[in-house]
Task: inverse folding
């Protein structure tokens, strides 16, 4: 199987006698054979569409972030090859802790727990960014739920970047996580 998968991340609030938080991280191949975009893939557009439609629309609507992960280049699998590994875990952990502190000091809770009223207060966009978000909702056929989830993700991206406000770059990144290209 090809290493490329579509990663799906989802945070669910499950309503029971006591609410429980759950985070779902899932993966699926981009097409039935797993080699979409490579010469050895012979899946038709219709086969890819049918394959992806097996995940229900309402479930997909509750997924905050979707991304395609490219295959690892064969040369990078060798133990004697030096690659830029980016940020180390300690650096990322520190940045995430700082972002979480910003969220709690600003709203008393993490961004994913913000209500609609709190989103209005803490996720303010410029007029042009509101228009950008509305265009994305229209163009990609996204729901009202997706609108609010994009705002929460954009606020989190801004927090991770240490930004007081949501910038266009943060918003476009959040919108990008809602798209799944065929």
Result:
């Amino acid at each position: 199987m090809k290493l490329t998968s579509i990663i799906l991340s989802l945070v669910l609030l499950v309503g029971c006698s006591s609410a429980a938080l759950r985070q779902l991280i899932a993966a699926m191949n981009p097409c039935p054979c797993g080699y979409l975009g490579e010469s050895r893939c012979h899946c038709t557009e219709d086969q890819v569409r049918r394959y992806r439609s097996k995940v229900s629309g309402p479930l997909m609507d509750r997924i905050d972030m979707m991304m395609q992960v490219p295959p690892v280049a064969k040369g990078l699998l060798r133990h004697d090859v030096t690659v830029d590994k980016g940020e180390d875990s300690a650096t990322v952990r520190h940045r995430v802790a700082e972002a979480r502190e910003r969220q709690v000091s600003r709203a008393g809770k993490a961004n994913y727990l913000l209500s609609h009223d709190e989103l209005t207060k803490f996720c303010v966009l410029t007029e042009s960014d509101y228009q950008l978000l509305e265009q994305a909702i229209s163009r990609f056929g996204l729901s009202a739920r997706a609108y609010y989830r994009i705002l929460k993700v954009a606020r989190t991206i801004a927090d991770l970047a240490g930004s007081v406000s949501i910038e266009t770059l943060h918003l476009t990144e959040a919108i990008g996580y809602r798209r799944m290209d065929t």
